[in-house]
Amino acid sequence: MSFSNHHHYLIVAVVSAVFLLNTCNAQGGLRLDYYAATCPSVEAIVKHETSIIMSRAPTLAAALLRLHFHDCFVRGCDASLLLNSTKGNTAEKDSPPNFTVRGYGSVDRVKAAVEKTCPGIVSCADILALVARDAISILNGPFWPVPLGRKDGTISRSSEALANIPPPTSNISALKASFASKGLDTKDLVVLSGSHTIGNSHCSSFSARLYNFSGTGRPDPALDSEYVPRLKSKCSPTDNTTIVEMDPGSFLTFDTHYYTNVAKRRGLFTSDWSLLTDPETAAYVRQQGVSTSPYVFFQDFANSMVKMGSIGVLTGNQGEIRKHCAFVNS
Fold first, then answer.
1. Looking at 7, 8, 70, 257, which residue is catalytic?
2. Segment 187-217, tens digit of pLDDT
3. Is 257 assigned a catalytic role?
4. How far apart are CA 273 and CA 217, in angstroms?
5. DSSP element (H, E) containing 169
6. DSSP labels for 1-16?
7. Which of 45, 148, 302, 317 is close enough to 17 for a disulfide, judged by CB 3.0 to 4.6 Å?
């Protein structure tokens, strides 16, 4: 992608998301200029630190986006996922849906840099939202305005992560219900699923589709039969450590290639394939799967990320500004 085209996509995504902000986030108490007087350099600091992180480990982009998603789906976008477990409580990060989540150290690094300039001002929840945006943008993905003013929660429960984060085995009905419960619609579901264009997955998250789908002892018939042997060559039935690219050949570029794979029945997860079982999501998959430009997807993704980033936010006198993201303030 040329720089000029990429720049054009950024402008489109920003303009589109700004319109959405006027109708969505203003009602949630979030503002684009929230730190204008108290920490005007916050976005520059976060961008600088995220750039360093990405230059050293570009695969963390997917991890950081996943952190934001998993956080927002449990108690809203309140950084509850970042809290450590305590003697009397197992936190979200130690719940099964989050066993393979990573990137906590990166968020801590960014938080520490922000604290040096603006101590006690910027929440971990806001930093997480900004880091996710910047990581995607650095991989030539869209850029969107992030409204700020989230406060950090003080409660984190493993059971709530288990109940609220949709597993990769979800069918379309379960996915639509999960997203609807967070104020997200079917279009948001298929658009945000496009984030699987980057990152990796552990074999254990989809090996049943290769070897024993629904107890049949056979592969999932919904998987492309020519793709199954390739995946089997990388993943044994009991492999819990090997990782596989979710978007082979393009897993470090944010683009529409994920939809091309799903349309060919080459999505790794049942949740990916399930997008072909609903008329609205299937139409979007097929449209983007043959698209020669990421223009529409980037615009849609920016809009859906703004919506997701406003789920259940704590604002005003709610919550707190944590000094360290892994611990509530004493």
1. 70
2. 999 999 999 999 899 999 999 999 999 899 9
3. no
4. 19
5. none
6. --HHHHHHHHHHHHHH
7. 302
